[in-house]
């Protein structure tokens, strides 16, 4: 068995793991990074990047279909999904090569294989060449998450897909049933609907994006419904069977049994931490009720010297939060004081229009008994949005009624993911709404809507109609 010694061993080469490895190398530590598959993790290979690449194809298709509104005579009947798939592969490959190069530049040793923790200072890695033993002083667990399948009879049949398999389709299905109206379900629904697939979304809750601001989720629901996506809310799946080439999904809809049929089913009911087969029982790590590794504010686990970061720790499964946790963990490992401001973590949903949020929702503030004042501004009153023919949506901010400190914000609209950082900075700095309301924004821009919403909260929006 080959032996290798290092200061820090990182289990997992996803957003938390590879960023942690680079940051630790910057601080002078010797690093071994263990990855079973490809660097970049789910985000790069089976999540964020592939879906956004496909969503861009769908956005172009949608734009072409509306070309007459711009005075352009053109038409498009369908997307060549095979070409779209190869474009996705090129994007992913380019970014993956970039990460591999960063490993080389930062003198990080990468071992391809499956790691198993034997003791707090020893990891055995199963590689193609055989077992390799890693001796280390510290361990960071960053193995991410995996699709979570509900307990539904027939859900484990071949052809019932998770997001992993859906991203590998080189041909478009004629129709598709998506189970789940959360972030993953909605992005895939729009991706396939705009490409020409007839999409039906089944959701047990009575609204989409159940954990998001209700006003935003209800407005986005109307927009997506107008685009042609069929929603069946408050609907409970009973079983999945297969008849010839189609799957039959039996559901309980408003107390009555119904059956929906499609050649493909995508299960998008969330993800769970990957904690099995790691050897955690050998070191006595505590897990939370949801199966995630329990960590403190420094991201150290209940076993001294072992840290964890990213999806494996539970909470919000966001690549950018995993980036931050990876850096935070190794900075604490190497003697720096680092903590995550979990309050100022934005999240984005890349539907069309996009939905981006940060901080509290209105319902959360009310449930905590916090006195708030809400400000809104609609994109239909924004010059750039009208010029871009993107009038849907609005900006909504919550400030403390007495101090005027911004507590949270939501942006439903074009490029919301690019604009949310302004509100994230405001929350991180505990800025008052007047700061953004008085800050000069370039005109015409979509970001003026953020300024106007903050101004509305303090009662002095200039361009908001009072009708």
Description of the structure:
Strands 1, 2, 3, 4, 5, 6 and 17 form a seven-stranded mixed sheet that branches. The protein has a five-stranded parallel sheet with strand order 8-15-9-10-11. It has helices at residues 15-26, 41-46, 48-65, 81-105, 163-166, 183-195, 214-226, 319-333, 362-367, 383-387, 416-428, 433-438, 448-457; strands at residues 2-11, 31-35, 109-112, 114-119, 122-127, 130-141, 145-147, 160-161, 175-179, 198-202, 230-232, 235-243, 246-253, 256-262, 264-267, 271-273, 306-308, 347-349, 354-359, 372-378, 394-400, 406-413. The protein is of the alpha/beta class and 467 residues long. 44% of the residues are buried. The chain contains 13 helices and 22 strands. The radius of gyration is 24 Å and the shape is globular. The chain has three domains: 2-146 and 272-340, FAD/NAD(P)-binding domain (3-Layer(bba) Sandwich); 160-269, FAD/NAD(P)-binding domain (3-Layer(bba) Sandwich); 344-457, FAD/NAD-linked reductase, C-terminal dimerisation domain (Enolase-like, domain 1).
Taking all Cα atoms into account, the compactness measure Rg is 24 Å
So how many helices? Answer: 13
Shape call: globular
Percentage beta strand: 25-35%
Largest sheet: 7 strands, mixed
Task: Supply the CATH class of the largest domain.
Answer: Alpha Beta
Descriptive tags:
FAD/NAD(P)-binding domain; Enolase-like, domain 1; 467 residues; globular; alpha/beta; seven-stranded mixed β-sheet; 3 domains; five-stranded parallel β-sheet; 22 strands
């Amino acid at each position: 068995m080959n032996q290798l010694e290092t200061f820090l061993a990182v289990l997992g080469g996803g957003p938390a793991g590879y960023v942690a490895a680079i940051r630790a190398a910057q601080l002078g530590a010797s690093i071994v990074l263990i990855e079973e598959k490809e660097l970049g993790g789910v985000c790069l290979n089976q999540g964020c990047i592939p879906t956004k690449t496909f969503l861009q194809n769908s956005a172009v298709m949608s734009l072409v279909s509306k070309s007459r509104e711009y005075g352009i005579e053109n038409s498009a009947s369908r997307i060549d999904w095979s070409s779209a798939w190869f474009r996705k592969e090129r994007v992913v490959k380019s970014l993956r090569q970039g990460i591999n190069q960063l490993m080389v530049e930062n003198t990080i040793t990468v071992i391809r294989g499956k790691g198993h923790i034997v003791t707090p200072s020893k990891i055995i890695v199963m590689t193609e060449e055989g077992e390799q033993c890693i001796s280390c002083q510290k361990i960071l667990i960053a193995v991410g998450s995996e699709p979570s399948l509900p307990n539904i009879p027939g859900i484990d049949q071949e052809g019932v897909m998770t997001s992993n398999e859906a991203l590998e389709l080189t041909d478009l299905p004629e129709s598709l049933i998506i189970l789940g109206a959360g972030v993953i379900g909605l992005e895939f629904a729009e991706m396939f609907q705009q490409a020409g697939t007839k999409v039906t979304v089944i959701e047990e809750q009575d609204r989409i994006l159940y954990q998001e601001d209700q006003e935003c989720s209800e407005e986005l629901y109307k927009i997506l419904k107008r685009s042609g996506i069929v929603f069946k809310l408050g609907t409970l799946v009973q079983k999945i069977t297969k008849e010839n080439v189609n799957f039959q999904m039996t559901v309980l809809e408003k107390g009555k049994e119904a059956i929906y049929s499609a050649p493909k089913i995508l299960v998008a009911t969330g993800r769970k931490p990957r904690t099995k087969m790691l050897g955690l029982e050998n070191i006595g790590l505590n897990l939370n009720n949801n199966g995630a590794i329990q960590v403190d504010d420094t991201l150290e686990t209940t076993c001294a010297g072992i840290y964890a970061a990213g999806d494996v720790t539970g909470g919000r499964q966001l690549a950018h939060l995993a980036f931050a946790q990876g850096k935070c963990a190794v900075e604490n490992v190497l003697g720096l004081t680092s903590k995550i401001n979990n309050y100022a973590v934005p999240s984005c949903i890349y539907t069309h229009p996009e939905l981006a949020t940060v901080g509290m929702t209105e319902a959360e503030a009310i449930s905590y008994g916090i006195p708030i004042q809400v400000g809104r501004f609609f994109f239909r009153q924004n010059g750039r949005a009208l010029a871009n023919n993107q009038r849907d949506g609005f900006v909504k901010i919550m400030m403390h009624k007495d101090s005027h400190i911004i507590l949270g914000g939501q942006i439903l609209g074009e490029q919301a993911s690019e604009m949310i950082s302004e509100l994230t900075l405001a929350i991180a700095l505990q800025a008052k709404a007047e700061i953004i309301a008085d800050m000069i924004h370039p005109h015409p821009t979509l970001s003026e809507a953020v300024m106007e919403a903050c101004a509305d909260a303090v009662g002095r929006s200039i361009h908001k109609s009072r009708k």
